[in-house]
From TrEMBL, chain A:
PANTHER family: EXOSOME COMPLEX COMPONENT, EXOSOME COMPLEX COMPONENT RRP41. SUPFAM superfamilies: Ribonuclease PH domain 2-like, Ribosomal protein S5 domain 2-like. It is found in: Cytoplasm; Nucleus, Nucleolus. It comes from the Eukaryota. Keywords: Cytoplasm, Exosome. GO terms for molecular function: RNA binding. Residues 18-145, 149-213 form the Exoribonuclease phosphorolytic domain. Pfam families: RNase_PH (PF01138), RNase_PH_C (PF03725). The keyword Cytoplasm applies. This is Exosome complex component RRP41. Belongs to the RNase PH family. The keyword Cytoplasm applies.
UniProtKB/TrEMBL annotation, chain B:
PANTHER family: 3'-5' EXORIBONUCLEASE CSL4-RELATED, EXOSOME COMPLEX COMPONENT CSL4. InterPro entries: Csl4, EXOSC1_C, Exosome_cplx_N_dom, NA-bd_OB-fold, S1_domain. One of its GO terms (molecular function) is RNA binding. Gene3D superfamilies: 2.40.50.100, Nucleic acid-binding proteins (2.40.50.140). This is S1 motif domain-containing protein. NCBIfam families: PRK09521.1. It comes from the Eukaryota. Residues 66-145 form the S1 motif domain.
Amino acid sequence: MEFVSPEGLRLDGRRPKELRKLRIKLGSLDGTDGSAFVQLGNTKVLAAVFGPRGAPTGARSSAISCVIAVSAISVQGDRRSKERLGRQATEFSRALTNAMEQLVPADILKNACIDVHVQVLQADGGLFAACANAALLALANAGVPLRDICAACHTGLLESTALVDLSAQESMQQAPQAAILYECRTQSIAIMQTDNKMSTTALEELLELATEGCIALVTAMRQALISSTVQQLSTSAPHASAAQRRD
Amino acid sequence: MSDQVVCPGDRLVSAAEYSAGHGTHVRDGYVCASLVGVKQVTKTGGQKPLVEVIRRGSQPLVPKPGAAVTAKVTKVNPRLASAEILCIGTKPVDQPFNGIIRVQDVRATEVDKVEMYSSFRPGDIVRAEVLSLGDSRSYYLSTAKNELGVVYAKSVAGQPMVAISWQEMQCPQTKATEKRKVAKVTA
C-alpha cells in the first residue's frame, strides 16, 4: 500500500506534517466540575473531572485517578480487537495518572482526590493523544491549578516518511510509531510510548515531529481555553467583587 | 480584555518584583499562572504588588491551612476527635473532607488537662481552623481560640443546648449541663 502519494499526499489527503482538524468544546457536561470534548479528525473523546473532593476513607495509592474507557460503539472489528484496545487504554491511564500527579500542585492533592474519566466515543488513530488532551483540558476547565499546559501527539514512520497524527488506517501498519506527552514550558517529554522496532535515528525524527505537533496542539488548546473564558466574561456580569472570590 | 486572559504555565511577571497570589505559582524566578482566567495586579502598600489569576464560575474548594471550617464530630477517643468538614468559610463542600482535632489542639491554655469527652461528643457542630494539611487521611483542625469550638450540640434528651459558659452547655428541657469546648460566637 502506498501511504504517501508521489504528489506528497496521504490517504486522507493530508500532507505528512499536517494535523487533522481539531475541535474542542469545553464545559459541555453538566453535573461535573469540568469537562472537555475533543475531536481530532474522526477520533472523538469526552473527558470529565470530578473533584477535588474529600478522599474516601481507606488508603489510596494516588490522589488523582484517570480512567480511560473505550466504549463498545467506538471501534469496528471483533471482540478481541476491542479487548486489546481496552488493555492498551488501561496501560495508558496509568501513565496519564502519573503525568497528572506531576502537573497538579501537591497541596491540592494532599487530602483530596480528583477523578478524571475519559470516554472514547469514536476511535480513529491518535486515540491516546486525544484522551490526554481532553483530560488536560477538562482539568483546566474544572479550575484545578496546573503547572503547565501540555499536549500529546502521535507520529509514525511509514515508508521512511515521518507522518504526524496517524489515522487508524496508518497506525494499523507494523511501522515505527511514537506518541508523546510534551510539556512546552520545560520542553520535556512527560510520557513516551513507542510501538514496533525502530532505529534511534527514526526515533529522533519521530520525536522531533511529535514535538512540533504538540506545540501546534498546545496553541490550539490555549486558544480554546482563552476564548471560552472570554465568552464567559462577556456573557456574565462584570467582575465579581473581591470579597466574593476570595474564599 | 482577551490579552489579560492567561493559561496555566504562562509566565506573568518576574518573581523578584511581584508576589504570587491566588491562581499562580513561582517557577524559575517567574510568577506563572496555574489557572485559566484573568490576570490581575493589585498594588499593596509598601510591599511588592500582588499578581493573581481570577477565574469565573465554580472554583475547586479544598481546605487550606488557616481556613475557618465548620465540621461535624463523628468519633471521639481520649487522644482525638474525628470530624467531617462540611463547610469551608461560608461555602459548603460537595463531599465532606476528613478532619482530626487532636487533644493538644482543643484549647490554647492548660493543654495537658484537656479531656476529650468533656470537649466534644459525636454529632456536635464545631467551628475550627485548619492547622496543617495533616497526614494523608485527614486535615488537622484546631479549636484553640475563643471564637472556635462547639457551636451546636444536642443534649441526651435530644434538645439543642444553650451555652452557659465556655466549658458548659445546658439542655433547655431537662436543665442538665454537659461539658463542651464552647465557641464564643460574636454576633
